[in-house]
Amino acid sequence: MSAGNSNRAWWFIAFPLAIVFLFTALPTVVGIGLSFFEWGAATEARSIGFENYRALLQDDQQFWRALRNTLIFAVATVPVTLLLAFLFASAVNAPWFRGRTVVRTLFFVPTVVSIVAVGFIWQWILDPQAGVLNHLLQSIGVDRMFGRDLPQWTGESAWSLAAVSFIQVWRTLGFSLVLYLAALSSVPRSLYDAASVDGAGSWQSLWRIAWPSVWPMTIFLITTGTIAALQVFDLVWIMTGGAERRWMDVLNVHLYREFSNNRMGYAAAIGVIVLLLTAIVTLAQLRWMLSRGEVRL
Amino acid sequence: MNRWMQPSASVRVAAQVATWAVALLMAAPFAWMVSTSLKSDAEAIGRDLNWIPAGPASEWQWGNYAAAWEQADLGRFYLNSVIVALVVTAVSLVHNALAGFAFAKLRFRGRSALFLVLLATMMLPFQVYFIFAYVICDVLGYIDTLHALIVPFLASAFGIFYMRQSIQSVPESVIEAGRIDGFTDFEVFWHIVLPSVRPALGALAIFTFMWSWNNFFWPLIVIDSGERYTLPLGVAALASGLFVQSWPVQMAAATIITVPTILVFLLFQRWFVAGLALTGVKG
């Protein structure tokens, strides 16, 4: 191609790149800088060095609670989702499975539904007085079995974290399942045949052949799933009604509260911490891909 | 047939039944939502587990839908959501394809460097840039207007990356043939490249539409006035009891917001799933 392309290419990229630059790249750079300032809507920005970070790490009990909740959420959701998705995808992918398309659709529907509707539906199901879950549990006698009242699923207890984690698994399972299906369908049959000749049963083939073959997909899903968990906001905000239920705060809910209270610099510092956590996960993935020779720098 | 393909009959039946059971459970909350939306308040909070509301269909509480629609002004929220999602999807598709084409097939100074910056941008969490993006929208006078929901999303790093990956697979020879016929860069893009990446365009369009339709955090920040709420904001306001406090009416609202996404998904399911697989493999 001729060097004359040089100028004409800019017509193609100028506007799209301007949008990405103006609303993503530039705000990131400024946002990182902002984390070293004290700044509210009514006040002049004032440089305070690492003071925001010191306050976060040393004085802010709520930050540590939010960090703990976020990490618990990630650990409680990602491995379970992957394992279930792999097992169900293996069943759906088997040649003898009936109704593949319908099952895949049923699994995937929660993924596409608005988080607001999801929050609504689950608040209703989990409602301690009128919700169907507690009604069901009472009708089979679970409350008498444990000799105590059934938990307030979305109230101030460890159960609310469990409930939110369960909903996250429910709404992300279909995504992982569809991706595992794509990965499984490209595993060559000859691999299974070879294992079969060696006397492996179907359960053994599953773990010795299928699981290692889809490992790149597993790494991809661990990475994207962990990042999504670290950045969770909507689900927690909606399930706790956005009220002052600080018990359930995750990092981004904490950030949003500080932002709403006009503590922009402090909120920016929390954003930078989310960025650092995300970067760690991304670098771990990159390192793995480099070691496998999947990408080269 | 080897043993992987043909496990024993009991294993097959068990796997089949378990998978179907969980698949139905996945969809059960939506069935319960629709069921509740047609009940009276008293029936909804009662202890009976009625999947089908009591009485003949003519006595079901169809009025819940009218109540949800009117009390929360859902019609206006709907219109706002449709405008935002359609404009964002149409314009960003063109922008992302244009830039993706330039990165895949044109040579220009700084191409590699710019592309690296773009890749890095893709990894950034929203939380680190939304604060100053808000300030920029404020300077531009976008706050509390639909502009704030549209302009920042008229192109995306992910979209450009996705289109670049797809366009790279268009053979160079086809493009050269177009040039020999005297096509300009834009004509090559329009007449040769775009038709051959239609599946990728379709998948990206659906992703963008769904994402825009369901976006919650950003509208929550930049929109204050009820008349400019998108559907998720409006329905969330319903949940907080701003408008009504009735489970059946709230479930009617949830149904109203859920149905379009499920329909879009069912209609375009093939593209959707194919596009997803592409993201995963190439991502």
Quick take:
The complex is a heterodimer of chains A (297) and B (283). In chain A, β1 (37-38) and β2 (46-47) form a beta hairpin. In chain A, 74% of the residues lie in helices and 1% in strands.
Largest interface: chains, residues each: A-B, 115 and 98 residues
Mean pLDDT of chain B: 86
Q: With helices defined by DSSP (H or I, 4 residues minimum), what is the helix count of chain B?
A: 15
Mean pLDDT of chain A: 86
Largest sheet of chain A: 2 strands, antiparallel
Oligomer: heterodimer
List the uncertain runs of chain A: none
CATH topology of the largest domain in chain B: MetI-like fold
Write structural notes for this entry.
The complex is a heterodimer of chains A (297) and B (283). Chain A has helices at residues 5-34, 51-59, 61-93, 100-112, 115-126, 132-139, 142-146, 158-185, 189-197, 202-213, 215-230, 234-239, 251-260, 264-291, and strands spanning 37-38, 46-47. Chain A is mostly helical and 297 residues long. In chain A, strands 1-2 form a two-stranded antiparallel ribbon. Chain A is globular and about 75 Å long. The model of chain A has no long low-confidence stretch (mean pLDDT 86). Chain B is 73% helix and 0% strand. In chain B, helix 4 (74-105) runs antiparallel to helix 11, helix 5 crosses helix 8 (157-168) and helix 13 runs antiparallel to helix 14. At the A-B interface, helix 1, helix 3, helix 4, helix 5 and helix 6 of A face helix 1, helix 4, helix 5, helix 6 and helix 10 of B.
Q: What's the topology here?
A:
The complex is a heterodimer of chains A (297) and B (283).
Chain A: H1 5-34, E1 37-38, E2 46-47, H2 51-59, H3 61-93, H4 100-112, H5 115-126, H6 132-139, H7 142-146, H8 158-185, H9 189-197, H10 202-213, H11 215-230, H12 234-239, H13 251-260, H14 264-291
Antiparallel strand pairs in A: 1-2
Helix pairs in contact in A: 1-14, 3-8, 3-11, 3-13, 4-8, 9-10, 11-14, 13-14
Chain B: H1 9-37, H2 41-45, H3 63-71, H4 74-105, H5 111-123, H6 126-139, H7 147-150, H8 157-168, H9 172-180, H10 185-196, H11 198-214, H12 217-222, H13 231-239, H14 247-267, H15 269-282
Helix pairs in contact in B: 1-14, 3-14, 4-8, 4-11, 4-13, 5-8, 9-10, 11-15, 13-14
